[in-house]
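Exercise 3.2. Students should predict the tertiary structure of the chain below and write it as structure tokens, then compare their answer with the key that follows.

Predict this chain's 3D structure.
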Amino acid sequence: MSKPRFVISCPFDTYSGYGARARDIVKAIIDLDKYKVELLSQRWGETSWGFCNQNPEWKFLLNHLARPDWQKQKPDIWMQITIPNEFQPVGKFSIGLTAGIEATACKAEWVEGMNRMDLNLVSSEFTKVNFENMLYEKKNPQTQQVMGQVKLTKPIKTVFEGINLDVYKSIKQSEIKNINLKQVPEQFCYLFVGHWMNGELGHDRKNVGMLVKLFYEAFKNKRGPKPALILKASTGVSSYISRDQILNKIKQIRDSINASDLPNIYLLTGEFSDQDMNELYNHPKVKAMLSLTKGEGFGRPLLEFSVTGKPIVASGWSGHMDFLNPEYVSLLPGSLEPIHPSASNDWLIKEAKWFKVSEPHVTTTLKNLYKHYKKFVQKSRKQKHFAKSNFSWEHMRDLVGDILEENIPEFPEQVELKLPSLNLPKLEKL
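Answer key:
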């Protein structure tokens, strides 16, 4: 019996969060060994291209590229890994997979896109509940007359972003080969990983600007050794322009702080492999990860870092709450606030809200962690065990297999028609 044909359109060859998600999902589906998997490689925003050739462990995905004429036969199963307004039902059974939303609501076009598919997959329960609760009035663009309601009517399931525990794990200092922090004299460094996106100070989604400001405020004019902050960040584009933009933002914030002595902040840029990121997480100078995010569809770096057993300080809201146990990490309190116009984008709506951390709690927590580090480590080791036990790639693969088996119908096998051969007499020329 031939396997059902499974065509997946996704940015698997890009250096991006969506790229990492796509690679893991595709590998999981291939690993199930139930489908004939074909890939359509898509770009993702302005992120770099060519991940698979630069990372040999992923080069096998290029062997699954669909032929140029893949559309000649309708796929049994079609999957798109992208934002939902782009979803199109191309296969006999069509699946949309998205990382989700980072706020309480998004444009109705996203819900309408999900309603075009037979099944939708998202990364967190936070995202799933948000989509299920969205309700919109559909209006005539000319008259603004209400024509009906838009709400999610198609099935939606949560598939967390499982991590490869063969890559992301605790390692010894002697195993760190590629990450060199010799230019960082401080022996205690906080780490942030993510994009510094649009938005005035305190309003960019990852809230990097406010993180920089509060870090300066927490340790300004401190006597004795100070901690440092390492930003593994970009503006979404890997370039010298991106680096310079971030450095200018840091300088502006630094210049605004009224203090004679401030701690140091270091910027790491460029494309890192999975192994490089694990070395960074495990570097002995890196002691904890910080995230003052306003909202995450999942929050993948936080999960990756958690398996090191080092402390995490993060906003107490959105997708990462699925895997960060509040007993084992430091979750910051706060409240929901409207999204500032400076941070708006094509999919958020003005009614949407996201999280604002309590700033006094941030500075207090940073000081306490630095002063009582061993106490925080005791809890974070339990988070390590929790993450490894519940959020591995293998667990994700098995979950994907169960969901596909429960939802995808059986397809009749396509049998090639074979005509019997006839033994006819040969014709002779007269």
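Discussion points: The domain at 5-161+392-407 is CATH 3.40.50 (Rossmann fold). The first strand starts at residue 5 and ends at 10.
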